[in-house]
């Protein structure tokens, strides 16, 4: 199983009041991995790109950057959710989930994990309801 598949499974099982559809697109390069319906009180759709990073370098393609930046210009919510394993850590207890807005995609491509996320939480102490609140902003 690819690392992103594990992150998708974790997201799907734990994000409250949501329906997540995994997108496998060979047609449109750069389309994020997930379409997420958040509801029911504040219904909203968002798209989320999933990444797992071990070290400091985030691999994000020019197509992904372009998708996120185009949609950010239109005020359409896209995000990049990163499961970050800091360099030199072997245990997932030290990993954290970091959430970035789509308009940060260009910066992520340039300086990777030095970009300040809009939200972060240690994976072992994950607060899924807080992630949901960030997606609704």
Tell me the number of helical segments per DSSP (H or I, 4 or more residues long).
Answer: 4
**Alpha-carbon Rg, integer:** 14 Å
* Average pLDDT, all residues: 92
CATH architecture: 3-Layer(aba) Sandwich
How many distinct folded domains? 1
Low-pLDDT segments, ≥5 res: none
- Can you summarize the main beta sheet? 6 strands, mixed
CATH topology category name: Trna Endonuclease, Chain: A, domain 1
Largest sheet strand order: 1-2-3-4-5-6
CATH class (first level) name:
Alpha Beta
Helicity level, as a percent range? Answer: 25-40%
N→C terminal distance? 32 Å
Order of helices and strands: HEEEHEEHEH
Strand content: 25-35%
State the shape.
Answer: globular
Please count the beta strands (DSSP E, at least 2 residues each): 6
What structural class should be given to the helix and strand makeup? alpha+beta
Describe the structure.
By secondary structure, the chain is α+β, with helices and mostly antiparallel strands. It has one domain (3-136): 3-Layer(aba) Sandwich (Trna Endonuclease, Chain: A, domain 1), CATH 3.40.1350.10. It has four helices and six strands; from the N terminus they run αβββαββαβα. The termini are far apart.
Name some characteristics of this structure.
137 residues, 6-stranded mixed beta sheet, 28% strand
Summarize the structure.
Helix content is 29%, strand content 28%.
Secondary structure: elements and pairs:
Elements: H1 3-14, E1 18-22, E2 34-38, E3 44-54, H2 62-73, E4 78-85, E5 96-101, H3 105-111, E6 119-122, H4 128-136
Parallel strand pairs: 3-4
Antiparallel strand pairs: 1-2, 2-3, 4-5, 5-6
């Amino acid at each position: 199983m690819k690392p992103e598949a594990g992150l998708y499974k974790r997201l799907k099982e734990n994000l409250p009041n949501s329906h997540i559809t995994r997108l496998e697109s060979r047609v449109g390069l750069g389309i994020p991995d997930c379409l997420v319906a958040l509801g029911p009180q504040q219904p909203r759709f968002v798209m989320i790109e999933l990444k797992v990073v071990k070290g400091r370098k985030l691999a994000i393609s020019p197509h992904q950057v372009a998708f996120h930046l185009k949609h950010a210009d239109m005020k359409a919510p896209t995000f990049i959710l990163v499961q970050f394993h800091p360099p030199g850590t072997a245990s997932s207890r030290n990993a954290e989930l970091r959430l970035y807005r789509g308009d940060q995609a260009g910066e992520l491509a340039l300086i990777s994990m030095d970009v300040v996320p809009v939200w972060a939480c240690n994976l072992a102490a994950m607060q899924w309801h807080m992630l949901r609140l960030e997606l609704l902003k």
